[in-house]
């Protein structure tokens, strides 16, 4: 009689096989290979009557998953990011190279070379924007990674925070160098410039309304005018214009949007944006970028998505792109374009 000796990789069954499982895996084989029936493997264990793990979790203070100070420092001096760049336009050290307007309920895109800056500006009234970023060199492969940015920094971004790109590149795409709102967090836990919400879209609206006509007050208007007027659709049309496709549109940075999670139900909520005429958010491009932004059809988002009875007031937003007059300024302060992540990418294979 033979006994089945099970080896998994290079480890002995004595070390890794469950005791109850061992008894079912040895026996007479009669010269044939013995197999173990999956039904005899131990499955779900009964839940504990009391658990110290629950108590441990409730009593332990929150532990940030990522320590920002462990990440690579910015590719330039502190003086550059905190002193020179935030004031460059006002001091005349940066010059305007392009300006454009994003019409209400629409989207526009623009290119920003590495080392240039761009602003999104409130020009006429309170309005939020949904922004996407792609690497100009390979936009279908490297894009803004909002959830990783949220994990590294916070649910809402402000001056000094960086926008990180997707795997396998994972590197800073841009750094926020100016934010005139500087809202912080209010008593409801709301902040501005969130990386929580994905963007309004026609698919969710379809489930919420179960019809193509989102706004019943506009029954005489063409269906496509209202149902397709979402940030996702706006960004999709612009992506196609730039040689991309719908699948290249990704989760956004909600510029000027005031949001949070309710304390009782932990649901995503919005408040009227605190943005006022003259406010702006400003970015430094850490690599060559293609940027696109949609002026949200929800205006300042004081009206809930899918609300068919209220018509949001929408405004255009301005975009300005600047370059530094001194072409050597960045280099003199140690700046360089953000390099691709150094991980070799073999994943243990």
From TrEMBL:
The record's InterPro entries line, in alphabetical order, gives:
DUF1989 (IPR018959)
- Polar residues bias locations: 22-36
Q: Region Disordered: what ranges?
A: 22-59
The domain of life for this entry's organism is: Eukaryota
Cite the DUF1989 domain residue spans from the record.
101-290
- PANTHER family in alphabetical order: RE64534P (PTHR31527:SF0)
Which protein is depicted? DUF1989 domain-containing protein
The organism is Pseudo-nitzschia delicatissima
């Amino acid at each position: 009689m033979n006994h089945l000796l099970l080896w998994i990789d290079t480890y002995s069954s004595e070390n890794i096989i469950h005791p109850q499982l061992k008894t079912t895996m040895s026996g007479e084989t009669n010269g044939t290979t013995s197999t173990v029936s999956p039904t005899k493997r131990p499955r779900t264990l009964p839940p504990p009557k009391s658990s110290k793990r629950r108590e441990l979790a409730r009593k332990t203070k929150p532990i940030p998953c990522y320590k920002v100070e462990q990440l690579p420092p910015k590719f330039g001096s502190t003086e550059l990011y905190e002193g020179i760049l935030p004031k460059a336009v006002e001091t005349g050290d940066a010059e305007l190279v392009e300006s454009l307007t994003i019409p209400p309920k629409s989207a526009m895109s623009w290119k920003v070379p590495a080392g240039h800056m761009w602003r999104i500006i409130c020009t006429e009234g309170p309005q939020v924007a949904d922004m996407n970023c792609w690497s100009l060199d390979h936009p279908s492969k490297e894009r803004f990674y909002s959830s990783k940015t949220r994990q590294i920094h916070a649910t809402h971004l402000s001056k000094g925070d960086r926008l990180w790109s997707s795997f396998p590149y994972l590197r800073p795409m841009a750094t926020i160098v100016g934010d005139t709102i500087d809202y912080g967090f209010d008593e409801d836990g709301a902040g501005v410039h969130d990386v929580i919400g994905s963007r309004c879209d026609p698919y969710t609206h379809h489930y919420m309304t179960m019809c193509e006509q989102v706004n019943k007050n506009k029954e005489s208007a063409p269906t496509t005018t209202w149902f397709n007027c979402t940030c996702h659709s706006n960004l999709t049309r612009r992506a196609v214009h730039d040689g991309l496709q719908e699948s290249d549109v990704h989760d956004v940075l909600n510029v000027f949007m005031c949001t949070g999670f309710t304390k009782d139900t932990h649901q995503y909520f919005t408040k009227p944006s605190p943005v006022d005429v003259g406010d702006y958010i400003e970015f430094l491009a850490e690599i060559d970028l293609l940027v696109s932004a949609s002026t949200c059809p929800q205006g300042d988002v004081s009206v809930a998505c899918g609300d068919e009875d209220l018509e949001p007031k929408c405004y255009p937003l301005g975009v300005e792109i600047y370059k530094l007059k001194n072409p050597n300024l960045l280099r003199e302060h140690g700046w360089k374009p953000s390099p691709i992540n150094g991980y070799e990418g073999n994943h243990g294979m």
